[in-house]
Specification:
homotetramer, alpha+beta, 4-stranded antiparallel β-sheet, about 35% strand, globular
């Protein structure tokens, strides 16, 4: 546990407006937690009107909010100010970790999941990583391959599509490219997990998704749709893929979300 | 907590023989636990030769055994004698549970998973369950529909296939039919989980798979490939689908399992 | 999950100032979580200067912050605005729950703990509760007995003393009276847990402690040092007793805390 | 994960006979789990007569069995055959671990607990360990001091007594000496946990208790009542002290246990 500097300060706000015909159960994940390299300094979570909410932690440790959105207009406004450790760099030890040496909590991220059919992409991955050193370099060549071969097209899919579907379409949103990267990693026994969060400078601004790969002794950030370092991100929730990590999950039919507004600002002043 | 009677006693043995060219990491789930209606009376887990094993509980509570199978011949022999509560019947209260009232531990079983694309089968499920009362009856009509529409063909798939694939092929092994049943249930917000275990009288004898649906205040057993009551089963492991619940998960290539032998006997004498 | 109204809004701030000769490891519990009847609307946690912090959840679900306080002046300032459900009342069903029917997560709160020697106070408890109906009434007569027999004297103990010691001294701080109440409850198999938090209107203002007893189907608040309803409280952390629930736990000798300031205000405006 | 050899094989049986006037809830911990250096090869758990049992894992990972012992004669017979790694030796790295570097799961074992008043024995511990190197050597000098200063007297206490009480009496059973050793360790920030289990060769044969201390990168066994190496033990359950780790916990009054029989044999044949 060294010092926090150099660190970036970010403020992210996320507002969801609903128009609701029939009272609808929702599960939300809009309360970021502090974690390695991320310290939540200020945070707010405002409902209008107020309804009863039950907050619980899921098996990944995400804080989930369960409520019944009431008839009529309903809005949720959250804000988070976080201090974020800047690029921690890649250490020489970011090697492949043998299965028998992986921490227990990491093992589940080797398994295929709803949108990451890692059990079907092994041949492709071995081609992509043929010349990479086991570990970080494999993960990096996978991320580069996704960047080079799949077009990042915001708005191109409304519902999540799976890694195989993304590969066939050759385009997708951030979530889709993350799914493909994750599937490729897991197929060669690199543990990979999905992250939903905020990214400073994203164009157009929206919620964002990327992934992390476990090599050496920690999780490393990979983002096939954005270039640049690993500062500038607030992680909101972690999971196997977008099936587990849904910022906003609605039970019941109907298009109830009338507006979603996300803003991310740099905090130049001290906290 | 009433009495255990009437209960069935079963003894299940499972032997795995391996021929291994390169030392291979394995994760096994072969230690059944006691649970509602299942009491493990005797149990054994023999490795030959002995190698170091780390046992841990995964997020579903399954006991997992992690080891590196050594070069040469290697075998695992497990045996479990359990006392099993017979058909507990369906209570009148086995109604649909509103999302906001489900126990937290059950919520994850509403999500789509690797082999259960519940996000893509909603239209079909609504047809199947059009005339069923919300809750147990919906689950029962789904199970009947799978029985009537998908042929149970042991040996017809070597690798897991997904609910959509099963539905297209119209045939599958026990695991495949369970995946389809689960996907259909989840698509109408019935929590459903995959079970791997032993079934007395299965023909041909093998490891078996079925699923459970949460209605009223507990999990109910459904098995689209077998008829008859819910005694006669030893549950080994639970999860979202066969991706989470792998009795034997091998890391690395090669066909190392040379023989799998499963036996299930009725214990007619007292324990 | 009914409505949040009538609810109280409170803002609590807690500032800790340190003067440190030798860098000192600390574990803090200063991040309240949302829970039944408590919704955290706004929250902040400011360190000055910033040092690296690791936040984790302990076995009770409390968020703990682990850091090394640096040489020199160091301060922590936290603020929490919460919406709090007012007195939920005692339902007729607040009966004693048989051991075999208690939720698993509640069982640990039947055990004796560092400052609650429930294994040594059974005779006294049976006297106190001789005429009470099993359940809420037993808990209420215990709380009244503590109020009537132990003087609440803020500042009378600097280090935690145990239930037996409190009973011998016949006086104590809020923490001490809570320990005695808890020990008495557990000795007749009423699950009881310690709560640290903020109380509106406390005189003199400080961090506060009380306890909860599980009867019927939920935890009920008891506070032997304060009269009045159960609104007006923000729970920060839960545990067996003050050994588990330490808002500020220092490793190493020396009197490093130079100032502790707590404020609790009523929020009369909307959130 | 190296090889299991040299390993010892032990078979332990534990029989409890009850005579019960009023149906009595019990919580038992009689199902040992596999863990580092301990592999459960065979295990049985027989109730006579059979009653419904709920098995769950507590926060320490111990398997607990909850049941209501019925009126009349009732018995529990358990047997466990385990393969046990022999003395793993003390590595040079068994140093004191700074608080900020301890694994999260270890932190709770720094806290005082019911029978281990580590908050009151710091002065004594600093005397005892004045000349010891931080880490394993401190723990070893504490264990030696307990051996030299407290007489091990089987049968000398029927109910658990605390570390301070043991120190005052200067004698105790295995559990009592373990409590004193644990309290002394924790008072200088050495994490220490209580273990209940079986020991081969114990005279007179009974259930046994000892403790483990976390130094370097793992838990080390200490036993102030027995001399010799760390093979020959089957751990049944872990916890803070005997309050958490009760092989047999009875709710309600009366002396219902009419007989307890423990046997531990060496398995000289292969498993």
């Amino acid at each position: 546990m060294g010092d926090f500097f150099p660190a970036t300060g970010l403020r992210a706000t996320c507002t969801l407006d609903f128009q609701i015909e029939v009272a609808t159960p929702l599960i939300l994940m809009l309360r970021p937690r502090s974690g390695p390299g991320q310290w939540v300094v200020r945070e707010s979570y405002v409902l209008n009107p107020y309804v009863n909410v039950v907050e619980y932690a899921d098996v990944f440790g995400n804080l989930c909010q369960r409520l019944v959105a009431p008839y009529g207009g309903f809005s949720i406004q959250t804000c988070c100010e976080a201090m974020l450790l800047e690029n921690r760099g890649v250490t020489a030890e970011a090697n492949f970790v043998e299965i028998q040496n992986l921490p227990e909590a990491v093992l589940a991220f080797l398994l295929p999941s709803r949108y990451c059919e890692s059990d079907r992409v092994g041949v492709l991955t071995r081609e992509i990583t043929a010349f990479a050193r086991p570990g970080y370099e494999q993960a990096a060549s996978i991320c580069r391959w996704v960047q080079d071969n799949i077009s990042y097209r915001p708005g191109s899919s409304n519902v999540p599509i799976s890694a195989l579907e993304v590969n066939a379409r050759q385009e997708g949103v951030c979530r889709d490219l993350a799914h493909l990267g994750i599937a490729l990693c897991r197929s060669i026994s690199l543990p990979a997990r999905f992250v939903a969060g905020y990214l400073y400078g994203l164009q157009p601004m929206d919620l964002h998704a990327w992934y992390e790969v476990y090599v050496g002794d920690r999780w490393y950030t990979f983002d096939p749709t954005q270039f640049g370092g690993d500062g500038g991100r607030i992680a909101i929730a972690y999971g196997s893929d977008a099936a587990d990590v849904s910022i906003f999950h609605q039970f019941g039919a109907g298009d109830i979300l009338s507006n979603l507004d996300v803003r991310v600002e740099l905090l130049t002043e001290g906290f």
